[in-house]
Amino acid sequence: MGQKKRRGKSLAEEYEEKERSVLQELLSMLLYMAIVLGLTFFVITFVGQRTYVSGDSMRNTLEDGDNLIVDKITYRFSAPRRFDIIVFPFEYEEDTYYIKRIIGMPGETIQIADGKIYVDGEQLNESYGREVMESPGIAETPIALGDDEYFVLGDNRNASSDSRDPSVGVIHQDRIIGRAWLRIWPFNKFGILKHQ
To answer: Does 187 lie in the same domain as 135?
Structure first.
C-alpha cells in the first residue's frame, strides 16, 4: 500500500503563516496605539483638558474634588460671555489654575458696594453668589476693564480668591485656558455644566 499524501500546508508553511499573523497583529496594535496617543495629544492641546476642583470657592456650583473637562476650543471662535465659568492659571504659582465665573466684561466698570455688584453704575441681577459679600477688595473703588479684560468671582463669594484680590486682579483674555464644560466625577453629578 502506498503512503497517503498529506493534504494542505506543510508545518513550515503553517508556522510562517502564524508568524506573519502575529507580526500583523503587533503592527496593527502599535498603529492603533500611535493613533490613540496622537488623538489624545491633539484633544488635550487644542480641544479639552481634565482638571479638578480644589477648595470651596465655587460652592454650590462646583464642589471640592469635582473632576471637570475644560473646553479649550469655544473661545477660539467666540468671546467669553458673562457668567461663563472659566479656567485660568494663577500667575504666582506654577501648575495652579483657578476656576471662577465671569462677572465683568471688557469695557465695563465694576464696583462692589454694600455687598452688591454694580456694572456701569447699575446693580447686576445675578443669583450665583448666595451670600452678601463681606469684602469688596480692590473693587471697593470702580475698576474700568480694558478691551480684553474680565472681572471674575467665585460663587462662594466669602471664601474665594478672585478679581477682588490684587494677586488675581482682572483676567486678560489670552490667559483664559477655556470654559469648564463637563463634570465627569463624581458620577452621580456627571453632566454638562450650566453657565447662563
So the answer is: yes
Is 108 strand, coil or helix?
Answer: coil
Would the pLDDT of 162 be above 90?
A: yes
Question: 97 and 180 share a domain?
Answer: yes
Catalytic residue among 9, 18, 21, 57: 57
100 is known as an active-site residue: yes
* 57 labelled catalytic: yes
1 located within any domain:
no
pLDDT of residue 80: 96
Q: Which of 5, 9, 10, 100 is catalytic?
A: 100
Q: Record the pTM.
A: 0.76
Supply 194's cell numbers.
450650566
Those residues with Cβ within 8 angstroms of residue 12's Cβ, 6 or more apart along the chain or in another chain: none
5 within domain boundaries:
no
